[in-house]
C-alpha cells in the first residue's frame, strides 16, 4: 500500500522549485577560471585571452565572472559586449575600445593644467571619423595608440561574443603588436565555436554574411602571437551534477542527474534551459534536500526564443528541413541523408548543403565512428544518393535540441518521417530473414545498444500509426513492450501499449491491447489510468474475454484501486454485491474480492471466502495461482507461515506468462524482506533467474535497507515518497515510510523521522499501522519518552490483536520488553517476553528468534541470571552472523559486548558495521562504549568530525540541549561544551547558522577538517 499523498517532512517548497542563478561560483569551470585569472594577472602573461566554447557553454558568465574577480582586486573592467547586428557597423568595436580606454589614460593631470582637449578626447574624435569613413589604416593607428598608452590603473577590456562584432574591428585588432601593449592593459574576449569553421553557407542575408566574416576573423585571432586561447568544453558528469545541485539548491538523485547529462551533454546553457522548463512545469520535486523528476516526466520542448532554437531558425532553408528530418532519422546512420531526400522531396545536393550549414553552425555533428563504420563526409557519394551510406552518419549535437526540433514538426510530418524509418528497418529485417517483432537484430547504425534500438523502432511505429502495416505495427509495439518490461529506464512501454490499443481493429485483440495498456500504466505508477481502463473492460468488454483474462483484469483493477489509496472504493470491492452487478464469472468475483480483503488486511474474512469457494478457484492450475497466493499471505500475516514457505518454490510458474511470474516472484520477495529474511529473498531471486537490477522500487529499497546500503536505500525511498509511490504487495502496507524513518533515526534525524511517520498515517478505514507504531515508539524512546513509547506500542498491538494479525508484531513486543526492563517493571517485561516467545515458536522466524534472544537477555540480566543471559546472547550472535545483515549484526554485537559475551573486539566490529551503513547515532554510542571498555577508537580526527556533524544534525532537527543530551546519553554540560567547540572550529556563530549549514548541505565536517 502507498503512503498518504502529502509528506510535508520531505517537501521543500512543494513542487514550486526555484532556480538559483547567482553567479558567484562558476561551478565546473574552476580550473579554467584559475588559469585565465592567473594569465591575466601575470605581468609576463598574454595581453589577449580568447575564450571559446560552443553555444551555451557559458562563455558570457565566465568572462564576466573573471572580470568581476579582477575588479575586486583593483582592476578597472571595461565591458564591451557585442550583440547581433554589430557586424553591419564598420569599426564599431574598435571605436568603442578607443573611447573606453581613453578614460583611463593620464587625463586628470592634463585637464587640471590645460583648457585644451585631452589627447584621449581627440583620439576618440579621430576614431569616430575613421569609423564613419571606413578608414581601416587610421583606425589601426588609433587602436594601437589607445592600447599602448600608459594607464592610471590596471585595465581589463572584456569583449563578449565577438563573433557578432564587425570584421574590420577584428582585423585591426589582429594586426596589433601585442608585445607593445603594457602589462597594465589586458584584453579578454569570448567567441562561440568549438573549432575552425569548415565552410560557409551560401546566399545568406547581408547581416548574417557580415557576422560569418567576423566569425572567421575572430577565429583567426587565436593564431596571433601573444594570444592565449582557452576552450570551455562541455562539463563532465560530476560537474554537470554539481551545476544541477547548485541551480536547484538540492542534490539531484541518480535518475535526474542521468537524464540531465543525457539531454544536455554537459552544456551549461542547455542544463539551465532544461531545468527552467521542468521548473515552470512543476515537475521537479525536492524531497529531504534531494531533487527528483519522475521516470514518466516528458522531456520539455524548448521555446521559440531559446538560443538553441533561434540558432537553427537563423539558418533558414534547407537547414531547418534537414534538421527536422535528421531529428527522427539520424539513428539510421549514413543512409539518413538519402532517406531525408526521399521523405522531404529535397534533392541530394540540397540535403548536402543543409547538412554543411548545420555542421558549420555547430548544430549538427558527425556521430562518433565505430571500428567498422565510417562517417561519410557531407559531399561524398553516400550523401548525394549514389550509395547506401551505412556509416554512423550525423546527429543534432544536443538531444534536447533534437527533441525540440522533432516536436516542432507537425504530427503528419512526424508520422511520415517515422514511417520512412519503419519501412527501412523492416526491409532490413526482411532481407536478413529476421522477422520476429521486437528483435534487437535490426540495422540501427547509430544505436549499438539493443534496448535503445528496440525502443527507437517502437517509437517510430507509434508515431507512424496507420501509415504502416497495422498488424505488423501492433505486433512490433507489443513485442517491444514485453521485451523491455519492466521499463525502469522509462523508454516508453506505456506509450507503446497505448499506441497499440489505438491501432488494433479487431474487438478481441483490442481488449487484449487495452489490458496490456492498463498493466503498463500500473507498472509505471499511473494507478488512476490503470484503474479506469480495467474497470471499463470489466463493465463493457467482459464478454470478449475468457475467465483467465477476466481474472487478471479484476486483480489489476483491485490492486490499482488500493494503490490509488481509495479505501472506500476498496471496501466496496470487498463485497459480493459490487461484483454481482457486473455479472462476471464466479472465479473473477472471488479473485477481486479476495485481493480487496487482503489489501484491507481483513485476513480472517479473506480465508473464510477462499475456504467457501475453493471448489471454484482450485480446479484449474492457472486459475488458482492468485487465490492460493492470497491465502498463503493471509496465513503468514496470522502467524502461520508454512503454506507461504512452501509456495516459494513457485510451482505455478510454468502456468504463467513472464509478466505474471515476475509479479508473483517480486511480491513474494517483498514479503520475505518484510519479515527481514534476506537470505531467503536472495535464494528466491536466484531460483527465478532475477537480479536486483530488475526489482521494482519498493523491493529495491527493502533489499538495500537490509543489506546496510542505506545511502542507496534512502535515494529510492525519497523518490518513492516524493512521487507517492510507496506501495508494496507485502502484507505490511507501511514498510517504506516505517523503515525510512528507522534509517533517519539511526542517523540522528529524530524530528524528520517523527514527521515522516505522522505524514504516512492514513485514515481509519486504511490498513494497520503497526510498523509505523514501532517506528514512532523508537523515536520516543530515543528522546527519553518511555511513557509515550509504551502508549504507542500498546495501540499498535491492540489494533493487530483485533485483526488477529501476528506478522511484524514481534518488533512491538520486543520494544515493549525493553521499555518495561528500562523502567524496572520486571513482571510486565516477563509477560511481554512470553508473548514474544509464543510468536517465535509459532512462526519459526529467524528475525523473531533473534529479537526474543536479545529481549530475554535483558530480562534475565535484570533477574540476576547473567549466565543464562550470556547463553542467549551467544546464540544471538551466531544467529545474527548467519543472517548477514550488517546493522542487525552490529546491534547484536553491541548487546553481547555489553554483557561480557565474547572479546571487546566485538565493539570494534560493530563500530565498523554501523559506519558502513551511516548509522551515525548508533556509531556515536558505540564509540562511547568502546572508550568505557578501554578500547582505542580508530581515526581520532574522523571521530571528531563525525561527532560534530551528528551534533549539527541534532541542532538542525530542532532539539534543545536537554533533548540532545538525552539522545546522546550525555549531560547537558557536556553538550554545551561540545557546542562551544563546534562553533569555534567551524566559524559558525549560532544555532541558526548551524541549521542553515546543514539544510544547505554545507559540510560542517569539511570546515572542521580545514580548521
Summarize this entry quickly.
This protein has 50 helices and ten strands.
Structure report:
Among the domains are: 46-107 and 120-197 and 218-232, 3-Layer(aba) Sandwich (Rossmann fold); 639-695. Helix content is 61%, strand content 4%. It contains 50 helices and 10 strands. Strand 7 and strand 8 form a beta hairpin.
Features:
disordered N terminus, mainly alpha, 61% helix, 10 strands, 5-stranded parallel sheet, 4% strand, 1011 residues, Rossmann fold
Main sheet: which strands, in order across? 2-3-4-1-5
Fourth-tier CATH superfamily name of the domain at 46-107 and 120-197 and 218-232: P-loop containing nucleotide triphosphate hydrolases
The CATH architecture of the domain at 46-107 and 120-197 and 218-232 can be given as: 3-Layer(aba) Sandwich
Query: Tell me about the biggest sheet?
Result: 5 strands, parallel
Mean pLDDT: 85
Shape: flat
Q: Could you estimate the helical fraction of the residues in percent? A: 55-70%
- Tell me the total number of β-strands: 10
- Helix/strand-derived class? mainly alpha
CATH top level assignment of the domain at 46-107 and 120-197 and 218-232: Alpha Beta
Radius of gyration: 35 Å
- The total count of helices amounts to 50
CATH topology grouping of the domain at 46-107 and 120-197 and 218-232? Rossmann fold
How far do the termini sit from each other?
A: 48 Å
Uncertain ranges: 1-16, 107-116, 195-211, 371-377, 379-390, 1001-1011
Amino acid at each position: 500500500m502507498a503512503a498518504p499523498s502529502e509528506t510535508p517532512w520531505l517537501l521543500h517548497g512543494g513542487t514550486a522549485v526555484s532556480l538559483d542563478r547567482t553567479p558567484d561560483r562558476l561551478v565546473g569551470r574552476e580550473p579554467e577560471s584559475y588559469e585565465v585569472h592567473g594569465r591575466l594577472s601575470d605581468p609576463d602573461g598574454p595581453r589577449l585571452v580568447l575564450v571559446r566554447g560552443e553555444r551555451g557553454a557559458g562563455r558570457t558568465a565566465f568572462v564576466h565572472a573573471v572580470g568581476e574577480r579582477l575588479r575586486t582586486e583593483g582592476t578597472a573592467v571595461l565591458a564591451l559586449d557585442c550583440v547581433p547586428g554589430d557586424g553591419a557597423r564598420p569599426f564599431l568595436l574598435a571605436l568603442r575600445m578607443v573611447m573606453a580606454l581613453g578614460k583611463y589614460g593620464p587625463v586628470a593631470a592634463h585637464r587640471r593644467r590645460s583648457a585644451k582637449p585631452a589627447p584621449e578626447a581627440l583620439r576618440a574624435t579621430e576614431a569616430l571619423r575613421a569609423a564613419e569613413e571606413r578608414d581601416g589604416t587610421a583606425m589601426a593607428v588609433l587602436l594601437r595608440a589607445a592600447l599602448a598608452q600608459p594607464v592610471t590603473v590596471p585595465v581589463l577590456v572584456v569583449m563578449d561574443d565577438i563573433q557578432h562584432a564587425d570584421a574590420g574591428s577584428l582585423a585591426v585588432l589582429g594586426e596589433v603588436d601585442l608585445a607593445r601593449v603594457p602589462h597594465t592593459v589586458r584584453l579578454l574576449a569570448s567567441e562561440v565555436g568549438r573549432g575552425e569553421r569548415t565552410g560557409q553557407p551560401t546566399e545568406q542575408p547581408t547581416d548574417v554574411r557580415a557576422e560569418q566574416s567576423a566569425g572567421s576573423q575572430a577565429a583567426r585571432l587565436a593564431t596571433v602571437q601573444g594570444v592565449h586561447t582557452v576552450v570551455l568544453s562541455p562539463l563532465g558528469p560530476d560537474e554537470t551534477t554539481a551545476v544541477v545541485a547548485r541551480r536547484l539548491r538540492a542534490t539531484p538523485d541518480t535518475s535526474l542527474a542521468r537524464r540531465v547529462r543525457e539531454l544536455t551533454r554537459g552544456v551549461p546553457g542547455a542544463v539551465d534551459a532544461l531545468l527552467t522548463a521542468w521548473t515552470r512545469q512543476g515537475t521537479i520535486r525536492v524531497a529531504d534536500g534531494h531533487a527528483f523528476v519522475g521516470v514518466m516526466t516528458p522531456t520539455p520542448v524548448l521555446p521559440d526564443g531559446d538560443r538553441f532554437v533561434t540558432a537553427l531558425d537563423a539558418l533558414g532553408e534547407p537547414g531547418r528541413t534537414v534538421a527536422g528530418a535528421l531529428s527522427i532519422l539520424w539513428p539510421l546512420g549514413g543512409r539518413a541523408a538519402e532517406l531525408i531526400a526521399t521523405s522531404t522531396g529535397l534533392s541530394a545536393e540540397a540535403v548536402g548543403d543543409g547538412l554543411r550549414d548545420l555542421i558549420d553552425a555547430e548544430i549538427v555533428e558527425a556521430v562518433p565512428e565505430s571500428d567498422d563504420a565510417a562517417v561519410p563526409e557531407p559531399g561524398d557519394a553516400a550523401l548525394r544518393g549514389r550509395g547506401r551510406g551505412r556509416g554512423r552518419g550525423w546527429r543534432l549535437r544536443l538531444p534536447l535540441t533534437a527533441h525540440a526540433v522533432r516536436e516542432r514538426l507537425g504530427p503528419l510530418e512526424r508520422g511520415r518521417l517515422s514511417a520512412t524509418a519503419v519501412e527501412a528497418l523492416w526491409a532490413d529485417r526482411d532481407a536478413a530473414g529476421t522477422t520476429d517483432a521486437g528483435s534487437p537484430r535490426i540495422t540501427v547504425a547509430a544505436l549499438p545498444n539493443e534496448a535503445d534500438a528496440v525502443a527507437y523502432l517502437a517509437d517510430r511505429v507509434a508515431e507512424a500509426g496507420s501509415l504502416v502495416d497495422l498488424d505488423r505495427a501492433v505486433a512490433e509495439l507489443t513485442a517491444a513492450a514485453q521485451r523491455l518490461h519492466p521499463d525502469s529506464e522509462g523508454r516508453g512501454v506505456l506509450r507503446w501499449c497505448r499506441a497499440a490499443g489505438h491501432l488494433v481493429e479487431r474487438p478481441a485483440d483490442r481488449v487484449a491491447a487495452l489490458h496490456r495498456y492498463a498493466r503498463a500504466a500500473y507498472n509505471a505508477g499511473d494507478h488512476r489510468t490503470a484503474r479506469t481502463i480495467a474497470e471499463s473492460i470489466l463493465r463493457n468488454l467482459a464478454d470478449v474475454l475468457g475467465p483467465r483474462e477476466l481474472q487478471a483484469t479484476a486483480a489489476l483493477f483491485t490492486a490499482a484501486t488500493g494503490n490509488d489509496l481509495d479505501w472506500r472504493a476498496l471496501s466496496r470491492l470487498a463485497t459480493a454485491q459490487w461484483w454481482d452487478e457486473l455479472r462476471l464469472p464466479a472465479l473473477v468475483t472471488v479473485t477481486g474480492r479476495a485481493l480487496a480483503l487482503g489489501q484491507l488486511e481483513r485476513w480472517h474474512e479473506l480465508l473464510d471466502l477462499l475456504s467457501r469457494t475453493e471448489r471454484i478457484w482450485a480446479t484449474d492450475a492457472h486459475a488458482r495461482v492468485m487465490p492460493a497466493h492470497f491465502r498463503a499471505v493471509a496465513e503468514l500475516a496470522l502467524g502461520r507461515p508454512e503454506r507461504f514457505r512452501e509456495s516459494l518454490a513457485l510451482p505455478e510458474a510454468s502456468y504463467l506468462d513472464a509478466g505474471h511470474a515476475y509479479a508473483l516472484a517480486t511480491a513474494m520477495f517483498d514479503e520475505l524482506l518484510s519479515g527481514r529474511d534476506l537470505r531467503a529473498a536472495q535464494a528466491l531471486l536466484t531460483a527465478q533467474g532475477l537480479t536486483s537490477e530488475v526489482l521494482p522500487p519498493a523491493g529495491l529499497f527493502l533489499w538495500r535497507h537490509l543489506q546496510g546500503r542505506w545511502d542507496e536505500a534512502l535515494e529510492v525511498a525519497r523518490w518513492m515518497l516524493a512521487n507517492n509511490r510507496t506501495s508494496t504487495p507485502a502484507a505490511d502496507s507501511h514498510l517504506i515510510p516505517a523503515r525510512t524513518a528507522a534509517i533517519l533515526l539511526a542517523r540522528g534525524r529524530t524530528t524528520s523521522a517523527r514527521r515522516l511517520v505522522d505524514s504516512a498515517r492514513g485514515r481509519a478505514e486504511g490498513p494497520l499501522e503497526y510498523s509505523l507504531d514501532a517506528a514512532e515508539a523508537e523515536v520516543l524512546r530515543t528522546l527519553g519518552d518511555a511513557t509515550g513509547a509504551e502508549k504507542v506500542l500498546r495501540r499498535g498491538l491492540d489494533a493487530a490483536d483485533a485483526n488477529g494479525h501476528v506478522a511484524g508484531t514481534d518488533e512491538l513486543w520486543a520494544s515493549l520488553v525493553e521499555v518495561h526492563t528500562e523502567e524496572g517493571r520486571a513482571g510486565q517485561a516477563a509477560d511481554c517476553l512470553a508473548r514474544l516467545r509464543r510468536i517465535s515458536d509459532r512462526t519459526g522466524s529467524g528475525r523473531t528468534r533473534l529479537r526474543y534472544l536479545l529481549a530475554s537477555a535483558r530480562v534475565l540480566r535484570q533477574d540476576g541470571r547473567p549466565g543464562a543471559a550470556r547463553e542467549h546472547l551467544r546464540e544471538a550472535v551466531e544467529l545474527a552472523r548467519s543472517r548477514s545483515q550488517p546493522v542487525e549484526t552490529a546491534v547484536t554485537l553491541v548487546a553481547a559486548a555489553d554483557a561480557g559475551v565474547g572479546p571487546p573486539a566485538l565493539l570494534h566490529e560493530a563500530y565498523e558495521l554501523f559506519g558502513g551503513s551511516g548509522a551515525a547515532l548508533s556509531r556515536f554510542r558505540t564509540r562511547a562504549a568502546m572508550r568505557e571498555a578501554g578500547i582505542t577508537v580508530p581515526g581520532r580526527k574522523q571521530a571528531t568530525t563525525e561527532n560534530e556533524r551528528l551534533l549539527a544534525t541534532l541542532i538542525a532537527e530542532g532539539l534543545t540541549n536537554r533533548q540532545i543530551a538525552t539522545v546522546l546519553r550525555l549531560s547537558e554540560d557536556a553538550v554545551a561544551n561540545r557546542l562551544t567547540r563546534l562553533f569555534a572550529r567551524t566559524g559558525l556563530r549560532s544555532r541558526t547558522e548551524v541549521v542553515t549549514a546543514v539544510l544547505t548541505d554545507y559540510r560542517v565536517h569539511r570546515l572542521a577538517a580545514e580548521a
